[in-house]
Amino acid sequence: MLVRDPLSIVRGKREHPLATEHAEEVQHQAEPSGALMCAEPKTIASESLKSAVTDEPFSRRRIDRIDEPARPLGAKRAALQVRRERSASKSKGSRNGPREAGVLTLASNDETVAFTLRTTALGLVIERTLRQAIGTRFVQVMVFDDQPSFDRWCEFEPMRFEDALLYGHLRREGHAALAAKK
Amino acid sequence: MPCCTATCAVKAMLHSPPKSDGPSEGTSTHFQDYCAYLLELLPLIGDADSTETVVTLFREAVTCLGADAGVFLSHLRDDATRASLRSLWACDPVWSAEYVSRSFFSHDPWLQYATHDSEPILASALKPASAEEEEFLATAASCGFASAVIAPAPSGVGTSRVGVLCLGSQNPSYFGEVNYSKVRVVARALAMELHRWLQHSMRTELLLRSHITDAEIDLLRHEAAGHSSKVIGATLNVEATAIDCRFQRLNTKLDAPDRRTSLRIARLYGLL
B82 and A137: CB-CB below 8 Å? Predict the structure, then answer.
């Protein structure tokens, strides 16, 4: 006789197939019959593997719901991930300089802020990326048609105080790109 | 100067917009003109082949609605510690600079609203819950959002991926009750098209960056079905340890700490 949670029917939850198998196994082990104890568990195990390989979903692993926040990492794994990210950012080297035709990437020394400039027929496209080791990675995409609007944005850009060298480079490259567009 | 046929087509189209001051002005013929033009713009936004095209078309749609400013934000919760916020800006450049310098993305009431509601709303109906939100709304008002419509763009993955469009006007009464009923419909359509484009663009970007293969996507499908390494190995006729190695390579490609996070990223970016 299997022990099932009667509330699971009321709640509309389907009982896990493995839970049933496990309950059966426990039940058999609890019974005093020697014949069942040695023969039946093996049969159950082989059948469950067979069904998993063929058609039945063998849901031993817990599947997270995608519409819920992700489960936090354990302390050791989180530390490992931070170490990996640090070593990856070191091995990347300097990101400043041209990557492909018409695209220029300028990044701050600690690489937390990067600007990608692209000259196109529709204007100067600037993609500003703010990377944080933990937290939000924020990407802004803007298109500038003319120099006044670009200058107006530059006047309020926070990097003018945080990294003056990068800011100067950004202004020069932006002006050059907009002049070339004319 | 780089130029492609799609960009030229967009430029040609932008040269002949109907003269529009927005939904409230003019006759019904005038309104029909601008609606027809917007209907032409919307599919172009969803299928745009480049970032500059989509931002230019977005700006055009904002102007066509008679609005002064438009911002689209898409928030994605990659895993427990990381989140991505991608945004398209068609407004006063000061607002985009202020948004980042004051870290408004941490307490954006528009985004906050979109995470738990899918119905467009007038920004005036939002009640600031903190001093930061009050500051946000005051700064937004001074940068072209004195009156604004917030149109959330929900997704199939619930709050893990949320988009929000904000259309603003310097005129505090522009998006009043009269205009709102018309703008609400168009704003929702525009938000969904922008969200569609951004989702497609992020998927393409991830595929290019990670060089993920079809075999690896199949592995993720097994993971999604809850299969263990032993079961996957038995199905593919390889050792379970080989499956573990494949998952490790896959995790590195997706910059994920474990296969659970890899699966989450794959689902959020539409790889599965």
Answer: yes
